[in-house]
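Sync notes, pocket subgroup
Present: LS, DG
LS reminded everyone that the earlier model was apo-only. Rerun requested with N-carbamoyl-L-aspartate included. Inputs:
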Amino acid sequence: MTQSFPPATIGYGFSHAHLLGIDPLKPGEIAYLLDRAAYFAELEPGEAPDALAGSTVINLFFENSTRTRSSFEIAAQRLGADVVNMDVATSSVKKGETLIDTADTLNAMRPDFLVVRHGQAGAVKLLSRKLDAHVLNGGDGKHEHPTQALADALTIRRHKGKIDGLTVAICGDIRHSRVARSNLLLLQKMGARVRLIGPPTLLPNSYEALGVEVYHRMDEGLRDVDIVMMLRLQVERMAGTLIPSGREFFRFYGLDRDRLALAKPDALVMHPGPMNRGVEIASDIADDLDQSVIREQVEMGVAVRMACFEALATRRAPTTLRAA
Ligand code: NCD
């Protein structure tokens, strides 16, 4: 069943061949993806258009994932695609095959879409140059995780009605987080003010150029913010120990009731998952459905990934997009 475009998307387009990050996207393209995703979020699973019918999607995940991989898989299936999950742990990558050889092998199978997660920033871009398929970045090293940022933006927009003018605090291990980077780029492009809160060891090296406010104390940075975005400590990306212990980290940078009370009364609590309860966030806050939208972020993840697949499959230039 094919749906017509909702009126909100008239005038925007999306003409990229790949989704490598938020950085290359214009605000109008982000708005287009969010509008389409908002539309998909309201549909029952069986009502989605079959925009990917006859297409093959390969999920190639070199790093662990629960929600991102299954979310891409469900999104592709809802749009009618066939999905193949390559298990890197049992693939020839483990036998020493290079990334370029893996790309050649996959290319020979002629997939239409390749979703890649890789530990190295830039690996996804390299694959996009070597393959004929549309490549979607499912997270590359510390670089970008565009669909997570889009899912977060859609969640914010559903609650606040806008992104423009909001103040968002991104807290914790920002230095190692591709989620933080993609969110920072997206939120600023869409007109939000961004604060980074964390210890100096977990902040990016040069944040002056990022146009953000930086705080080392939660009590200062959380004051009057609209959104509190917590992050997991990316211990697997830390060379050496950058924090004393999880318990110590929670004492200084964990989100508890007292700290959350400093934000606006209707502030949203977000976390991309996986969470470490009692390290960056108190359990009762994570589960408090009055303020925590963590589960909704996962739900919106499917809708934004559907929007991304559809946008790549149709690649509409602004002038050719007209609502039915
Ligand atoms: C994040 C990731 O892998 O970058 N998870 C996710 O995709 N939702 C964040 C994390 O691993 O901490």
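DG: DSSP finds eleven helices and nine strands in the chain.
LS: The first strand starts at residue 56 and ends at 61.
Action: DG to write up.
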